[in-house]
Amino acid sequence: MTAEGAAGDSPEGVLLDEPTTADLRAKVTEAWREFAGDLAGLLTRLEPGAQVDLTLDPTASGTGTAVYSVSIRVLPAGAIEALAVGNAALPAEFRMDRAAVADMVALGWSPPGVLPGSGDFFGVRSEQEKASQLATAVTRTLRDVYGAPHPAFLVYRVHDDQDEPIEAGPLASARTEAGPENGIDLGDLDDDEAFAEAVAGTTDELVPLDDRVRTVIATMSKTTVDQLQVDADGDIGIRAGSAMVFVRVRDNPPLVDVFSPILTEVEPTEQLYVKLSELTNRMPIGRLYCAQDTVWASIPVFGRNFQAIHLMLAVQVMTGLADELDDRLHGEFGGKRFFGEGDKPVPAKAEGDEHRPGMYL
């Protein structure tokens, strides 16, 4: 697939219609709001003895051996108890500072050991009828204190007091412990006969383009169309490893845009624009650009005569770009990576390593 073939009917139309028309912060905020709502609904339905375990995926968040988790247990008489990991269970380099501990207390958590039976964990006790308030506190803990960038980076498990799984339905874009390791299968799907059969109908021009796109993404994710996470902008959010990728369908011209925020809160400078232009010229398809304070990567896919393999390739390339470039550009220009802590010190580059090309560039 060439860059021209992927771009759709009108290059001008592509340039005038950026993915940044939707505010990234609003998109992420809405995803967390949906997660809190789903969690509150789940807590009101569970029977005594049921437990919900929520964990920030360390392989995606870059926290190494640190496991940030919250467990919520339903007790008799409509009571709920939640325990959140404390410093005693975290490696030294990932322990919370005084400000973070103060934030935990401000969110309603009792310090470790204060709630009977909490041991080294922060604890809080509430009631099922107040599940919404508890779900909000847990959500803010995972997002603001533990640093989860998006609910898609959370793994959850619902089970009873005998550790038997309980069918609970989805929690927004969080994934179950039994789900695919990276949220999406990026193998050689074009050689998979099952994949080809599953997406065979996506070439039918009488089927709306957004329906065809959702079929492809659901097949890649090994899930159903109904279980895809579609936000208020109509974008499909998919997590692949440490990358967050969005897929948007456009009508005029018919186009599928696969895009990802590489860096946020970055200062636009002449040096940054030069670097993005240089990297774009070396990309096989797609482009990099800065809009306001966010660096985006975007790969448009031809909407007419839509081919599932083109969308699959765009997602594969976008995932590789996001994984590779966020660290590289953060090291040069600062800002915040979507899934990382942008205010962490960045190691100095090794001499002669400035322009080493990566897999996708």
UniProtKB/TrEMBL annotation:
Question: Which parts of the sequence are annotated with region: Disordered?
Answer: 340-361
Residue intervals of the TY-Chap central domain? 209-340
- Cite a single Pfam family from the UniProt record: TY-Chap1
Q: Which residues form a coiled coil?
A: none
Tell me the InterPro entries matching this sequence.
TY-Chap_M, TY-Chap_N
- State the superkingdom: Bacteria
The TY-Chap N-terminal domain covers: 30-154
**Name the UniProt record assigns to this protein:** Uncharacterized protein
